[in-house]
Automatic annotation (TrEMBL):
Protein keywords: Kinase, Transferase
SUPFAM superfamilies: Protein kinase-like (PK-like)
Family under the similarity heading: Belongs to the fructosamine kinase family.
A Pfam family matched in the record: Fructosamin_kin
Record GO terms (molecular function): kinase activity
Name the UniProt record assigns to this protein: Fructosamine-3-kinase
Species lineage: Bacteria, Pseudomonadati, Bacteroidota, Flavobacteriia, Flavobacteriales
InterPro entries per the UniProt record, alphabetical: Fructo-/Ketosamine-3-kinase, Kinase-like_dom_sf
Length: 294
């Protein structure tokens, strides 16, 4: 996509949208915005905002879904999320999201403890079925969220099998591994404990939590759905960066069922499949290592 390309063609239109919002923007600074978005810090006399741009053709409703997810999380009154100022599309078929700017700071042990407790409280929001009222995104990958009555059905048909097919289409895995994944899915009822469908962030890695100057964490870039709560913790452990205080505090509020460490690789399979699809390399080997047991 590229910053220069976007700036030359679409920035004038974005500036017009900003004028309509009466934000009094006098400076736009390009910043790092992840792997798929162009991102900018918008600066006014006494405030800052965060702007993300992307193509509406390639990722339909990406930011509208993100805005709705942030609103859902905010309503649980557990996590701080940046306020959504505006979301929409330009006449040139680009989409944008304008968020409150979050000033970050180094987290303390108290911050980590509060984060663990808040995640446990967030997971107390439950539903009678697994899934979500719309498909959404994790990175650039569409997550099917068809409602099911069992976690094994949901994890099989909305997560593992669709991703295995995508990897097979890219010739990153073989039919042998697809069969191993199928056998794994047939055993999910015996692997995961039966729990109520829980509202989860869906992409709870270190890059999607921001320690704030107010001493708390804000969460961003959700891929929410009602799933198994161990999925959030599995992603947190997979990519690191979380203090042990976080996990201890979670356990105090909402202890995990026995043998959760043994289930960890199975819960981490989905995020590893996503990364294998996006980045290939050793993530494919990680997937293959998990599937070898099946």
């Amino acid at each position: 996509m590229g910053y220069n390309f976007l700036y030359d063609i679409f920035m004038n239109e974005i500036l017009e949208r900003l004028k309509q919002l009466d934000l009094d923007i006098d400076n736009i600074v390009p910043i790092k915005g992840g792997d798929i978005n162009d991102a900018f810090r918008l600066e006014s006399f006494n405030k800052k905002y965060f702007l993300k741009l992307n193509t509406a053709n390639n990722f339909p409703d990406l930011f509208k879904k993100e805005a709705r997810a942030l609103d859902t999380i905010r309503k649980t009154e557990t996590f701080y999320t940046p306020n959504v100022l505006n979301v929409g599309e330009t006449d040139n078929n680009f989409q944008y999201l304008i968020l409150e700017w979050i000033e970050t700071a180094e987290p303390t042990l108290v911050n980590w403890e509060n984060l663990g407790r808040n995640l446990a409280k967030f997971h107390q929001n439950t539903n009678d079925k697994f899934g979500w009222n719309e498909d959404n995104y994790i990175s650039i990958v569409v997550q099917p969220n068809n409602f099911t009555t069992s976690w094994s059905d949901f994890y099989t048909n909305n997560r593992i099998i669709p991703m295995m097919k995508l990897l097979q289409n890219k010739q990153l895995i073989t039919t042998k591994e697809v069969k191993a994944a199928t056998r794994l899915c047939q055993q999910l009822d015996n692997i995961f404990p039966v729990e109520k469908p829980t509202l989860i962030h869906g992409d709870f890695w270190n890059g999607n939590i921001l320690a704030t100057k107010d001493g708390e964490f804000a969460v961003v870039d959700p891929a929410i759905y009602y799933g198994h709560r161990e999925m959030d913790l599995a992603i947190a452990k997979l990519f690191g960066g979380f203090d042990d205080t976080f996990f201890d505090a979670y356990q105090e509020i909402s202890p995990l069922e026995n043998n959760h460490e043994e289930r960890l690789p199975i819960a981490q399979l989905f995020p590893l499949l996503i990364h294998a699809y996006l980045f290939e390399g050793y993530y494919v080997k990680d997937v293959q290592t998990i599937l070898k047991k099946f």
